[in-house]
Amino acid sequence: MKTPVLFFNLLLLSSLFVGCEYFSTSTYTPQQIKKASQWSDEDQTPGFESCQDEAEEDRFSCFKNTISSTVNNALYAQELVSNQAIDQEIVLEIQIDKEGEISLLSIENASTVLDAIPSLSVLLEETIESLPTALPATKTNVGVKVDSQLKLPIRVIANPQ
Predict the structure, then answer these.
(1) DSSP 3-state helix, strand, coil percentages of the chain (rounded to 5)?
(2) Is the Cβ–Cβ distance between 96 and 148 less than 8 Å?
(3) Most C-beta atoms within 10 A of its C-beta, which of 22, 52, 61, 126?
(4) Which residues of 43-82 are buried (b: 16+ CB within 10 A; e: fewer)?
(5) In which element (H, E) is residue 151 found?
């Protein structure tokens, strides 16, 4: 009877020594976390499925060009009316979330343009939301999909009508 109890106690004691390595924790400094979080050349930029056949270095350009041409086509397809002369650059701030959904966060430098062409804001938002779901950006050093943002400048030129 003593042998099984002794064996069990010895097994329990040895498992405590072996299991201790699983309880060790690593601490990282804020600088190490910041460095690991910064974007690097190895990280994967967002993209569209249609751009995946491109060379790796051209995929992000294809992604940006697809967004740009979609916005340009939408603007040219509409008969926008301005109440004043405009020649100004606006900047669309676009977010691609972890699921690949694309949304318009803001329109920078746009107060004059939006006053002159009130329907422009809604048109831009609808156009960005109509884009296909993207492949989200990925931090390759940790293998995690991340939110990303890009800025798209647009020159708006209009004459009053």
Answers:
(1) 45, 25, 30
(2) yes
(3) 61
(4) ebbbbbeebeeeeeeebbebbbebbeeebeeebeeeebeb
(5) strand 148-158
Q: What six digits make up the tokens of 67?
A: 């967004």
**Measured between alpha carbons, how far is 105 from 43 in angstroms, rounded to an integer?**
23
Task: Name the maximum alpha-carbon separation found in the chain.
Answer: 102
The pair of structure tokens assigned to 140 is 């390759």
Query: Closest by alpha carbon to 86, among 12, 156, 35, 4?
Result: 156
Calpha distance 108→121 (Å, rounded): 11
pLDDT per residue rounded down to tens, the chain (161 residues): 566 766 666 666 566 555 555 555 677 777 776 676 666 677 788 999 999 888 888 889 999 999 999 999 998 898 888 888 888 999 999 999 999 999 999 999 888 888 888 889 999 999 999 999 999 998 887 788 989 999 999 888 888 86
